Amino acid sequence: MTLVTVEDVRKASNRLAPYVVHTPLLRAPRLSTELDLRVLVKPENLQRTGSFKVRGALNTLLSWQESGSLPRGVVCYSAGNHAAAVAYAGQSLGVETVIAMPHGAVQSKIDNVHRFGGEIVETDDLIGTCNSLSAERGFPMLLPFDMPEVIAGQGTVGLEILADAVATGTAVDAVLVPVGGGGLISGIGAVVKSLSPRTLVIGVESEASNALGLALNAGEVVDLPARLPTIADGLAAPRAGGHTLAHAQAYVNCMVEVSESAITRAWRDMVDATKLVVEPSSAVGLAALREISLADMGLRAGMSVVLVASGGNVDFSRFADF
Amino acid sequence: MTLVTVEDVRKASNRLAPYVVHTPLLRAPRLSTELDLRVLVKPENLQRTGSFKVRGALNTLLSWQESGSLPRGVVCYSAGNHAAAVAYAGQSLGVETVIAMPHGAVQSKIDNVHRFGGEIVETDDLIGTCNSLSAERGFPMLLPFDMPEVIAGQGTVGLEILADAVATGTAVDAVLVPVGGGGLISGIGAVVKSLSPRTLVIGVESEASNALGLALNAGEVVDLPARLPTIADGLAAPRAGGHTLAHAQAYVNCMVEVSESAITRAWRDMVDATKLVVEPSSAVGLAALREISLADMGLRAGMSVVLVASGGNVDFSRFADF
């Protein structure tokens, strides 16, 4: 399988520039003091549509446009951030978007699709409905993670992290990346292992949703044995993909799993300490730094670590539990 | 009265560089679309201690240090952000801090003082207790807004806004500044009216707490006739100061008042749209853009306006109402 290269990501970055935010690289002094590390946060909650997903969706459409194959519309399935990302990408380029979402999706996610002109089809069979829609309308599917163009788009997060670190004279010893299907860590890994090979790329999954870890252990994509509930709903992929598995095999230093209780605590503390509205998925990196020994991840005290905050789309009612 | 100059603010900026965050200047596309303006946010919730106040407190201590008069300790009174700012400034320079806080102050504010080694004295008479503490311990008072060093420190917010705007080729047609005692707008006004005179400096108060507006109308500092409750607790100054009044007279284009209900709505929407944890005080600028006609503030559609988000110290339980 051909892997995404840093050149693919650089091209993606040039394509995306007019449409996405170059999010800042923020220091997190409270977390740094607590953990005896230099903790930095890459706040993709501040990204258009509230998550990094817009990078991959837009890069896919822009790549198709460059090659003269931009369709009149696209379909996708998503309960969350990919839905809004596709809607925004479509609206930006004048492409219709039809999005299969589960019955009973939370209102804020629905609003975030309608805001960008997406058409929602509610269903209990996301993939089946998406396939039917694709056939009926003649629109291609824009997958949430397992496409090279999506991976290259997500990789621009890594490009920005390294550029901003260099600009401020900051070393990056490790990047901790939330992992669902693995698109984000695939892209970040491709960049980091090319431009800063000694930087550790660490993937963090919920123990309730460890599809990429399972695939790495099995050496092939496997289905999760059960769909367990997770507070980190943004990471709830039922399986990894062939592309993301291959990238993880090539570019990821280690994968770790964190407990649901650690994610819940880390989420609250991350919002409090960073003053960023992030969703629970964004807090798995902090959970890992607390729940797993530094040595097990190849880290030691004093190192400079980046926590990628993947998104900020969360129902405010959940803050009531804080 | 001598006014703070842009040179004073530049000196403050050099002093503060090792201790404070140069917060980014963020675009707010959802608010821009809603308001038909180009809305930018200066997120001082991301500042050390969670508010801009640390700039003024640190500049005061650093100025005293430069002149060889750094005391062994300082006292201050505050129910909120100034308390943590003084504690942080003191800890940074090895100066004891004794802080008079009201009985029943919220736990997060108390924690934010203890985190930086401040000593808290609970009292129902903030100013009286602070005066006594100052006399007993022989420590000078570090006032929340009405000191030139504090105003110069807060002015660095304005310096950063203009520098980042220039760096990105962004015009700044207006800066909307939350106003309590007036320290922040005094400093920002000094910078803006020197470096970008055509940029409008607009102060926004809650109608429940309009001390600076009253002083400007009266031509002298006057006490608020009544202490009305306000959701924007960070702006609840009982009176402006002689220094801040003089700066407002010289540098502020207009002052407006917004209703409590407009602040409440703007607060929720600002958190949702920007994905920043901001306190209600930070949302008065958005409330003004919605509640007051643009023309009344000298604005028109398409202009580029900066909302200064003054801080992010808020009890999460309040998000439950969202």
Automatic annotation (TrEMBL), chains A, B:
Its cofactor is pyridoxal 5'-phosphate. Its EC number is 4.3.1.19. Gene3D superfamilies: 3.40.50.1100. SUPFAM superfamilies: Tryptophan synthase beta subunit-like PLP-dependent enzymes (SSF53686). GO terms for molecular function: L-serine ammonia-lyase activity; threonine deaminase activity. InterPro entries: Ser/Thr_Dehydratase (IPR050147), TrpB-like_PALP (IPR001926), TrpB-like_PALP_sf (IPR036052). It catalyses: L-threonine = 2-oxobutanoate + NH4(+). Keywords: Lyase, Pyridoxal phosphate. Residues 19-311 form the Tryptophan synthase beta chain-like PALP domain. GO terms for biological process: isoleucine biosynthetic process; L-serine catabolic process; L-threonine catabolic process. Belongs to the serine/threonine dehydratase family. Catalyzes the anaerobic formation of alpha-ketobutyrate and ammonia from threonine in a two-step reaction. The first step involved a dehydration of threonine and a production of enamine intermediates (aminocrotonate), which tautomerizes to its imine form (iminobutyrate). Both intermediates are unstable and short-lived. The second step is the nonenzymatic hydrolysis of the enamine/imine intermediates to form 2-ketobutyrate and free ammonia. In the low water environment of the cell, the second step is accelerated by RidA. This is threonine ammonia-lyase.
